[in-house]
Design brief:
Urease, subunit C, domain 1, nine-stranded mixed beta sheet, TIM Barrel, four-stranded parallel beta sheet, homodimer, alpha/beta, 2 domains
């Protein structure tokens, strides 16, 4: 792999605040970092011998960040749909996880998810699942940037017989990937209602010790809020704040049923939010107050959640849907305008994951996580404004190249580090054998 | 063009009520009509010499119906986004239409729209625009099934200096396509607030004379309802009913701000509804009571509306979004379940357009409007239930073949009757010259 690369032949959207698109621009990459961004002629003159990647007249922009997902749940895609959340979770998803999930199958599901993610223009994923060390190894091998974690619950998980075992696995994960250039280990207590106060405190201490991100589900459903109010006399956010769990390293997923006071609290504690509009809609959980979060000055990124409740891993599609959703719900078509939406998918998501200094914009010195998007289809014609195109017309299938840390992982729509046919065949075989009734 | 064709190599979803998917099925076509549907071995034995189209292991189902659109507005895609409806319409869209739209440019915009539609699996479009005869000629040439019309307003249109001229053009259109196998002419008074009572009556008489569909925008915005209540003392639906405009041949687009009484009235008069969720959200118009429409027993199909307010012509995407939207808004994840959603896209849309006896399901004797969808991508894996796949994971880019009246119009993702490169180049050139400020 060469240590240099020039991506050219397209319009560059750096996603730096206040900048204009660079028509016929290019990005020069050295040793995985962005070296130079500008007019193609100048960049190519600066790096005359570097290998080139042609964007084919399309858009060149930072890769998308998926700020909350459960990658290996791709194996449960379409297992259970159109059900109430409780029925979905208790009668279908949890039993299927118990039957299906091992280190080996999680590795497979993670590979499948990475393939789908790269083809959707994703360069960073924030994963909360089990067998976190395996997930980290798989993603490191593929070359996809990630936050990885080991889910901690009060109950046994597919990976850990006990919460103590999950905490031990978390520590091993933190040690293993402490200095990894792509994989950032995190601590993942599942939710305020599923992890005891003492264990939440242990998880927070572990995150503190390693200065690691802490990801947690927060205020996903009305029932959760009611339960916490009943049992603790506090909203989920206030309860976690009270326990001292929340900090600028916290990634709070969902935050659907959250009050203005809670938002102020999250803002004060500098918590980042991963909003998951499609999953929240599909499970009937509700609609998060995203415009209010942004107005409050919270860091926000988009998550897909797992494929069992989405059913895809396509943050661009989900962000597009969010833009439409909030325009319709508020009656204000100026809400979540095009450029803001693409900021949330890139710099916004990077900020939520604590990676704003390393990724999210095409800025010299940052790591080279870049996607190239074709604009040759009829649905892309005419193309007046690149941000409006991304926000209202572009599709995952338009993603042509994806580069992470300077390494092309998707080139002309072909995955370079994943045996896609092998992964698909293995996933199909596994799912066919794992369906309810096939045992 | 051969008069026989067998589509095989996939799972057949006939969309007939109560039927199960036919694994390894096939559809035999003779003279544009569906001759036989069943197990591939049997169908192939019945038609041994027929040319074959291989679905590549994917899904074979009726083509999608786009029940309300303005095709040529593809030329205005991305011209104006993130604006209030009034600013969008009065400061951007109407001036651009006056500058841009002629018979020649409408032909181009219609070709562009047909290309996008076919690639999204659409086999029937219901178009409301200007230069309807040109639109009909273009679509007949391409081979796409359509309802076409000439927009009638109280004001001059790009095609007609006066409402009387628009009515004359409508009559010409009705006469021209009266017996056309693919193009069904319709009458299109724009909306209750933009067409006088006398002209609405004239339009309805014309539709009556030709037994033609009548399409009209209805109750799209709160402002429209307020205006009609103020000026006529009636809701838009009650006002049209009072005028005798509504019948089982009426296609009412939008119906966003519509009361339970209005719904009962539409049901009683057997009006069909084309719901346009994405356009309604994007313009901040609101959320139509779709679950209530279905509960009331109304015929309903999905429309994309024009590309200036969507910004694509992808009914599958829009239906998927609607399923998520209504689950989230109602808090009930069982709303608009997968199979029901695909019914609305096929048989439902056909019913709204008065074509239920000719298209919408793979039933012997019906016309052969069929799409084949690939299921080879990571986002399609594993595939447990084909309806859940279509409702929650499939994408326009998965559409592989599209057949209308037995004629393959998209084959292995290539358009057979449209010079796509030529259309794209012409549309780009036109749009570049037509932007505000370039004159």
């Amino acid at each position: 792999m060469s240590s240099e690369l020039v991506i050219h032949g397209g319009t560059v959207l750096t996603m730096e605040s206040g900048t204009q698109p660079i028509a016929n621009g290019a990005v020069g990459i050295r040793n995985g970092l962005i070296a130079v961004v500008g007019a193609a002629a100048e960049v190519l003159a600066t790096m005359p011998g570097a290998p080139r990647l042609d964007a084919g007249g399309g858009l060149i922009l930072p890769g998308f960040v998926n700020a909350h997902t459960h990658l290996a749940m791709t194996l449960l895609r379409g297992f259970a749909d159109d059900l109430t959340l409780r029925e979905w979770l208790e009668q279908h998803i949890w039993p299927a996880e118990r039957r299906l999930m091992s280190a080996q199958t999680v590795a497979l599901g993670t590979r499948l998810a990475a393939a789908e993610s790269l083809r959707a223009g994703v360069t960073t994923v924030c994963d909360m699942y089990f067998f976190g060390t395996t997930v980290g190894d798989v993603l490191a091998d593929i070359g996809l940037r990630a936050l990885v974690s080991e889910g901690i619950l009060d109950y046994p998980t597919p990976a850990a017989d006990s919460p103590e075992a999950a905490l031990r696995l978390s520590r091993e994960l933190l040690e293993r990937f402490r200095h990894h250039p792509l994989i950032r280990p995190a601590v993942a207590p599942h939710a305020p209602y599923s992890v005891s106060a003492a264990r939440l405190a242990s998880a927070a201490e572990l995150a503190e010790e390693f200065e690691a991100p802490l990801m947690i589900h927060l205020a996903e459903t009305r029932q959760e809020v009611e339960q916490l109010l009943r049992d603790k006399g506090l909203s989920p956010a206030a309860y976690l704040a009270d326990l001292g769990i929340l900090s600028e390293r916290t990634i709070a997923a969902h935050c659907v049923h959250i009050s203005p006071d809670d938002l102020a609290l999250l803002r004060e504690l500098e918590v980042g939010v991963a909003t998951n509009p499609v999953s929240n809609l599909k499970l009937g959980s509700g609609i998060a107050p995203l415009p209010q979060m942004l107005a409050a000055g919270l860091r926000v990124g988009f998550g897909t959640d797992g494929a069992a409740s989405n059913n895809t891993l396509d943050p661009l599609r989900d962000a597009q849907l969010a833009s439409l959703l909030y325009k319709g719900v508020t009656g204000d078509p100026t809400v979540l305008p095009a450029r803001k939406l693409i900021e949330l998918l890139t710099v916004g998501g990077a900020g939520v994951l604590g990676l704003a200094d390393r990724i999210g914009s095409l800025t010299p010195g940052k790591e080279a996580d870049i996607l190239c998007l074709d604009v040759n289809g009829p649905h892309a014609t005419p193309l007046v404004d690149p941000f409006a195109h991304l926000a209202y017309a572009a599709r995952a299938s338009d993603v042509r190249h994806v580069v992470v840390r300077g390494r092309p992982l998707l080139q002309d729509r072909t995955l370079t580090t994943i045996d896609l046919d092998g992964v698909l065949a293995a996933a199909r075989a596994l799912a066919a054998g794992a369906r309810p009734g096939s045992h």
